[in-house]
Automatic annotation (TrEMBL):
Residues 180-226 form the F-box domain. This is F-box domain-containing protein. It comes from Lactuca virosa. PROSITE patterns: FBOX (PS50181). Residues 17-77 are annotated as: Disordered. Residues 17-28, 36-62 have a biased composition (Basic and acidic residues).
């Protein structure tokens, strides 16, 4: 069954529909909508329905249904199809609510569905901004309606947005639509409130959900703003929108074609219009004449347009306008007479004359009006005596005479922007009420201009960027808060006095030499890259941060400016990076918490008496010779970057970490840090026993001490370590020690001992460890690159069962590691104690040929074994239950490999000469092996990886050479 309905209704039909709705007729109507399609009678005449015309002109948007079965006899069913958007908000979803209450949900009964899509789709399409993808949005909206196809009538001569729509329905389509229809149980007021947060595009999308949402989203409350900026809307479409939403208050047609036609339509149709935006076209004189008919208009914005025919005066006369913007427009002469006007912008427009009659105007912008002559500017501004803000930047014709006239006429002028006006110098100009003055790139502004500016005692903001002739600024202004001086090439001297000064921007003034600032409000001062600055005087009681980076000419006198007793009692952060003229720095401050001297390469002496100093940066201070930190609040300090440091004094009650690594000439060190826990004095070759003894006495909490490459430390210094009861880690690598007895006697709690490359230790030096039971708490021992013999190493590994980490890298006197025994197995298990060794490193031991670790050796905790780079190693036989990591890489002589390591996960055999069969046999007993590295193994072919995987199914990664070697 096809139903064609005409939905072109007038205002009379709308009123009639509202009356029927208030009388409650729809409840009875919708209660009788269910009827059997086979028993329903004809609805009008076929030819009338097919033509799209209503059967009865008086009925407007209604058609009558004769009742069939299930309906009361003798009554007609009136279905009102008038879905005009002009009704009350509460009526937008009335049909959906009544349908929920009255319709029978029997799936076997049929009922006609009539949807008004002329209003559901058209209005949304026209009301939203005409974006380029609107055609896709329009298409998507129609497709989402499922089986209802909405299309405009193709009758010749009909408007583009016709109100005649077609709806098709059959049994299959109707049943599917019933199943897919979404019903939301929301009240009209709640729906209205939610939709008030949506934009036009979202409203259109919401209209796709259901009939109630379509009607609610089309309410005129949501379409007060008609925005068609840069959209290709036709006059007919725009006229239709204006008729649909006559109460719209804002219209934007900037960039739309035929703006004159559109704006005339808006003025004639929208009587409540308050905000009008248009541009990018030509506006005739009739538009400005018709503006008076738009009595509610408050704001007019015209951008990039041609006003009139280019020769006549353009009048803008209006009694209610508050704001006007005529920006970037082409016009010869303009006349504005608006008694209520408050703001006027003629920025970047080409008029040569402007006549203003706006007695209440307080904001005038004529910036970049290059053709506006000096006399015209004077006449225009002086005709507005109440103006408070004036922007005349880039008006090159402005003169001091004009400014004098303005100062006499506009007594309330507070904001003046005269930037890029080369002819002004402010001589004899008095602007006492100014609060903001901008004079960017004014070539006439010199030091003499400061006399005129000093009379603006209300001035709060002053900007003098790019004033190339300005040499000095002396100002004493009680209300000055913000001043800018950027790219003033000849600027030499700055003197400011203001109790409320809070922001100073001085940048790229290469000639600036002297600065004197007095302020009670300034908290941050940044003067970066002032290469000529030599004198700085500050009386700033609240100043907390100062940045003087790259001020190369600053001398040692700067220290007095920021020390106690100067004018900055609250200074917390000071940055003097790359101030290369500083040689002796001395600060005494009870407020300073952060100091940066990075890149100050000329500093030779540093003395800081700053008890609250928490951070200090000395990167690049490679000529520092003497340093005193007494007292400071530092928790950590790194002086290893100062290779020439020879004298050091530190008194830091809270310091816990001190690094002196690389201070090779440090010979005098007085360290008083009672909370110090870690001291790194690596490569301090001149550090002697007396310094070490004094440090141990004053820093009793040290638990980690690194004395690597400190050859001057002897037995006396090591004996003083008894004052360190918490010492657990000691590094004596690369020293000339011959006797370790002072260490065994003093460091009873030692857990880590590093003795790398201590070549002067004898074979008996470690006997107290494995014979006398010294250092029972020791867990890690590093004897790499030492000269101990094989017997000492075997005794150490056999007797020191408490060791967990042992490093024997590069030990040339070590031969085989063989823990096999000749006694019976029962005796072996009884005799051999359980060893705690977890990591054993024997990297690069050239004389090791055999490694045998049977299970009876009881290395039950061994998890990592590294014997790589042992070129003469031939046989490895390891049976360790917990071994996880085994590295035999670069053992080129390896031939025999036997493994009984059920928990081994990683095996590295890179560059080994072992055979494929030996590897296959070895890994067959490693049920948890995941990683195998056989790269550059000459006897193992890449094509044999399958055999290795078969031998060890747990393998996940095999690293092999891509091509045979």
């Amino acid at each position: 069954m096809k139903i064609w309905c005409c939905l072109c209704f007038g205002e009379e039909e709308e009123e009639e529909y509202k009356k029927r709705e208030t009388m409650g007729e729809r409840k009875g109507i919708l209660g009788n909508l269910d009827f059997d399609e086979g028993k329903s009678e004809e609805i009008g005449h076929d030819e009338e329905l097919g033509s799209g015309k209503p059967r009865d002109e008086d009925d407007g948007g209604k058609f009558r249904l004769q009742p069939g079965e299930g309906t009361s006899r003798g009554s007609n069913v009136d279905v009102n199809l008038n879905l005009s958007l002009g009704g009350d908000p509460s009526s937008s979803s009335a049909a959906a609510v009544l349908e929920r209450d009255g319709l029978d949900r029997d799936s076997h009964s049929k009922r006609p569905k009539v949807h008004s899509l002329a209003l559901d789709c058209d209005s949304f399409l026209l009301s939203m901004p005409f974006q380029e993808n609107m055609s896709d949005e329009y298409e998507r909206m129609h497709n989402s309606l499922g089986n209802y196809l909405c299309s405009a009538s193709e009758d010749e001569g009909s408007p583009l947005m016709s109100n005649i729509w077609r709806m098709e329905e059959d049994e299959n389509v109707q049943q599917e639509m019933d199943d897919r229809e979404i019903r939301m149980d929301l009240t009209d007021d709640l729906l209205h409130m939610v939709f008030s947060f949506l934009g036009h595009i979202d409203l259109c999308r919401a209209a796709e959900v259901c009939r109630q949402w379509r009607m609610a989203s089309a309410h005129e409350d949501f379409w007060r703003i008609l925005n068609f900026e840069n959209r290709n809307i036709s006059p007919l479409q725009f006229e239709d929108m204006c008729h649909r939403y006559p109460n719209a208050t804002q219209v934007n047609i900037n960039g739309s074609p035929a703006i004159h036609t559109l704006v005339m339509q808006a003025i004639s149709s929208l009587r409540n219009l308050e905000f009008l935006t248009l541009g990018k076209g030509q506006l005739g004189e009739t538009f400005f004449q018709a503006l008076t008919d738009c009595t509610m208009l408050k704001s007019l914005i015209v951008t990039d347009a041609i006003l009139g025919n280019g020769i006549q005066e353009i009048p803008i006369y209006h009694d209610t306008l508050r704001h006007i913007q005529i920006v970037k427009c082409r016009v010869v002469r303009i006349s504005v007479r608006c008694p209520q006007l408050l703001t006027l912008s003629l920025k970047r427009s080409s008029m040569a004359h402007a006549v203003l009659n706006c007695p209440l105007l307080n904001d005038l912008d004529i910036a970049s009006c290059h053709k506006l002559l000096d006399a015209a500017i004077r006449s225009a501004v002086t005709s507005c005596p109440l103006v408070e803000s004036l922007d005349m930047s880039n008006c090159s014709c402005v003169s001091d005479e004009t400014l004098r006239e303005i100062s006499l006429t506009c007594a309330n002028l507070h904001i003046l922007n005269a930037s890029y006006c080369p002819n002004i110098s402010l001589e004899s100009v008095r602007l006492p009420m100014l609060t903001v003055l901008k004079l960017h790139s004014c070539e006439g502004i010199t030091s003499a201009s400061m006399a005129a500016i000093s009379h603006s005692y209300m001035l709060e903001v002053l900007e003098l960027d790019n004033c190339s002739l300005l040499t000095s600024v002396f100002l004493d202004l009680p209300r000055l808060q913000n001043i800018r001086l950027v790219h003033c090439r000849k600027f030499v001297d700055l003197r400011l006095r203001s109790a409320v000064l809070s922001s100073i921007k001085v940048s790229n003034c290469p000639s600036l030499q002297r600065i004197n600032i007095v302020s009670n409000s300034l908290q941050k001062l940044v003067l970066q890259k002032q290469e000529s600055l030599t004198s700085l005087e500050l009386q700033c009681q609240r100043l907390q941060e100062v940045d003087l980076t790259d001020c190369e000419s600053l001398t040692n006198s700067i220290c007095e400016v920021f020390s106690d007793g100067s004018g900055c009692p609250m200074l917390k952060s000071l940055i003097l990076d790359n101030c290369e003229s500083l040689t002796e720095v001395e600060f005494c401050s009870n407020s300073l918490t952060s100091l940066s001297l990075a890149g100050c390469r000329a500093i030779t002496s540093l003395e800081l008496t700053c008890p609250y100093l928490e951070q200090v940066s000395l990167d690049g201070c490679d000529h520092l010779e003497r340093a005193t930190f007494s007292p400071v609040g530092l928790r950590s300090l790194n002086l290893g970057i100062c290779p020439k440091l020879n004298s050091l004094k530190i008194e830091a009650p809270t310091m816990v970490l001190l690094e002196l690594k690389g201070c090779g000439v440090l010979s005098e060190a007085l360290i008083n840090c009672p909370l110090l826990t870690s001291l790194d004095a690596s490569f301090c070759s001149q550090l002697k026993d007396d310094c070490l003894s004094a440090t141990a006495a004053s820093c009793p909490l040290i638990d980690s001490l690194i004395l690597m490459s400190c050859p001057s430390v002897g037995p006396d210094g090591l004996l003083s370590l008894r004052w360190l009861p918490n010492l657990t880690s000691l590094d004596l690598s690369y020293t000339f020690l011959t006797n370790l007895q002072p260490v065994f006697d003093s460091c009873l709690q030692l857990k880590v001992l590093k003795l790398q490359a201590c070549k002067y230790l004898t074979d008996t030096s470690l006997e107290p460890l494995y014979k006398d039971g010294a250092l029972t708490t020791l867990r890690e021992l590093d004897l790499s690159y030492g000269s101990l013999c094989q017997a000492s190493i075997e005794e150490l590994l056999a007797c020191c069962t408490h060791l967990t980490h042992v490093s024997l890298n590069g030990c040339v006197n070590m031969h085989d590691l063989n823990w096999s025994f000749s006694t019976s197995q029962d005796e072996q298990q009884q005799q051999q104690p359980e060893r705690l060794l977890q990591n054993l490193n024997c990297v690069g031991c050239p004389n090791v040929k055999k490694v045998v670790i049977p299970s009876v050796a009881r290395f039950t905790h061994l998890s990592s074994l590294n014997i790589s780079l042992s070129a003469n190693l031939k046989e490895v036989d390891v049976a360790c239950f917990n071994l996880c990591f085994l590295n035999l890489s670069n053992c080129s002589s390896l031939e025999i490999l036997k493994l009984d390591c059920p928990r081994l996960t990683s095996l590295f055999l890179q560059s080994c000469n072992i055979s494929e069969e030996a590897v296959e046999s070895a890994i067959s007993h490693c049920n948890m092996l995941e990683t195998l590295d056989v790269r550059f193994c000459q006897k193992i072919s890449p094509s044999s990886m399958g055999r290795l995987r078969a031998a060890c199914p747990s393998l996940k990664r095999i690293f092999s050479s891509l091509v045979p070697i």
